Amino acid sequence: MATTSDFRNGLCIEFNGNPWRIVEFQHVKPGKGPAFVRTKLKNLNNGKVLDNTFTAGVKIDVIRVENRTYQYLYNDDSGYHFMNMDDYTQIFLNKEIINAPELMKEGATVDVVFNADEEMPLTCELPAAVVLEVTHTEPGLKGNTATNATKPATVETGAIINVPLFINEGDKIKIDTSNGSYKERVKE
Predict the structure, then answer these.
(1) Other C-beta atoms within 10 Å of 70: how many?
(2) Of 12, 10, 6, 128, nearest to 62 (Cα)?
(3) Based on C-alpha coordinates, what's the Rg of the chain?
(4) Could you report how far apart the first and last alpha carbons of the chain are, in Å?
């Protein structure tokens, strides 16, 4: 058992009978009334995000989790297939528990979070950013660079990302996996 003073980003808790991960939290001590904690929770079963307020000091059940490194192999009708980098066993996961499945390239290394008590995968986390090659984009028009204009570009995984006009086919770009946005062009 833990209390709200033990909250930290990434902590997995049991709330309303489901496993949840704390995405962000804020302790609030108003001038009048009891202290409380505002949280943003992500359901590890279906990926839904919930805003919830806990009274300060309330007891919370913490879920023991383990991070394991897996390599993405491929996906088919049964799900996304991964291989454990330590013992070479394979598992498959549903699309709902992967944070950005459209940005995974075959051979990519990911962290799979397991419930340590039940040996059940809870979520699959990609690195903070991935580098992918642009396979198709329209050429940027000269003279349209006065504003922060963007254009759609298809990357090697098939995902469509909005990129600046100076990005061309064959360029490698860094993409933020938390929101799927362009970060920067990568020099070879």
Answers:
(1) 22
(2) 12
(3) 20
(4) 50
CA atoms within 13 A on the CB side of 138: 7
Give the pLDDT confidence of 50-99 residue by residue, as tens digits. Answer: 999 999 889 999 988 888 999 999 988 888 999 998 898 999 888 888 88
DSSP code for 33: S
Find where tokens 């860094």 sit: 174
Structural domains of the chain sorted by starting position, each given as residue range(s) with its CATH number in brackets? 2-62 (2.30.30.30), 65-125 (2.40.50.140), 129-186 (2.40.50.140)
Burial 106-137 (b: 16+ CB within 10 A, else e): eebebebbbbeeeeebbbbbbeeebebebeeb
pTM, to two decimals: 0.75
